[in-house]
Amino acid sequence: MAQWQSFVCFAIVAASVAASLVAIIRRTTNRRPPPRPPRAAGSAAAAPWASCWSRVPPAWLLAFRATAAAALAAVLAWDLRTYDASIMLYYTEWTLVLEIGYFAAATAWSANGCLATHRRSRADDPESTDDGSHGRLLCRSGGADEQDPKPDGDDDDAWEGPAAGRLLGLLVQIGYQVTAGAVVLTDAVFWALIVPFISSAHFSLNAVMVCIHSLNLVFLLSETALNNLAFPWFRMAYFVLWTCLYVIVQWIAHLCGLTWWPYPFLSPTASSAPLWYLAMALLHFPCYLVYWLIVRAKSCCLVHMQAANRS
Predict the structure, then answer these.
(1) Which residues of the chain carry a pLDDT beneath 50?
(2) Cβ of 181: how many Cβ atoms within 10 Å?
(3) Which of 18, 75, 137, 232 gives the lowest tally of CB atoms within 10 Å of its CB?
């Protein structure tokens, strides 16, 4: 057994966990007022659970999120029927479950926001038929002119409303950012590494695999185009922790008797294992950067549209 390779792999994972926890703790203890993503079509303020597009009713975003959660859950059920429970050992399935959880939580968050805003509007005006699309409950303070187009702010403290709503909003935003990084990572590894170079009795390219590695990104990009969530850089720490958790679970599974690796390069006893672990750790940066740039591009487009609407 290659003991030194195992030690180096353990050190890489431990260092990643430690660095991520330090980043989260520092950010938590040194919070500052966050910039806010812009909102299209000149609405005064955007509810964080609503769409960034003022002409898209919050109920539409709610319906999309519910549809995405149901569709991805159906794909997961198809995956389990095609294989067996052992398929859940793959990072792909972990990411799929994470994405389903995100869309389910976002659906609940949207429903809570729509319902709370509707109740408030009815209380203010019993004869009002407002659907809540312009409600201010749980909205960010400030007007559109104060908004910063940068998508790298943290919105944790910018939301007003009950503590339960703030907690759910925080969980949704963390889930969104971790899901974004994980989807890019799993699709990049799958299409660039696994499909061309790896084959085993536990893997075969078929319709369900193609659906998983296409729909996960399609639904996520659609969500990004519609939602009103920031994409701060420091949240990459949660993405790293998610992957480290997956690796640690794999180690525990093998200590408990699992005899095969879902991804052969994860075996810490292989001679090249330290290089693989280091490469996978570094790969988190470009994966998160790719999605950060996507969110940045959307924010810039919204800013230009706002400027055009004012002129």
Answers:
(1) 1, 33-34, 41-44, 128-160
(2) 26
(3) 18
User: Angle of helix 273-310 relative to helix 3-29, nearest 10 degrees?
Assistant: 30
Cα–Cα distances in angstroms (integers) from residue 161 to residues 117, 123, 199, 239, in the given order: 11, 16, 51, 27
Q: Are 12 and 251 in contact (CB under 8 A)?
A: no
CB atoms within 10 A of CB 261: 17
Is residue 52 a contact partner of residue 37, using CB atoms and an 8 Å limit? yes
Which helix H or strand E contains 299, and what residues bound it?
helix 273-310
- Could you give the CA distance from residue 105 to residue 100 in angstroms, rounded to a whole number? 9
Tokens 């407002």, located at residue: 130
Q: What six digits make up the tokens of 311?
A: 């002129």
Phi, psi for residue 292 in degrees, rounded to 5:
-60, -40
Name the DSSP letter for residue 50. Answer: S
Residue 41 main-chain phi, psi, to 5 deg: 65, 20
Residue ranges of alpha helices (H) inside 144-204 are 163-189, 195-197
Cα–Cα distance list, 212 to 76, 86, 91, 180, 209 (Å): 8, 16, 12, 15, 5
pTM recorded for the entire structure:
0.83
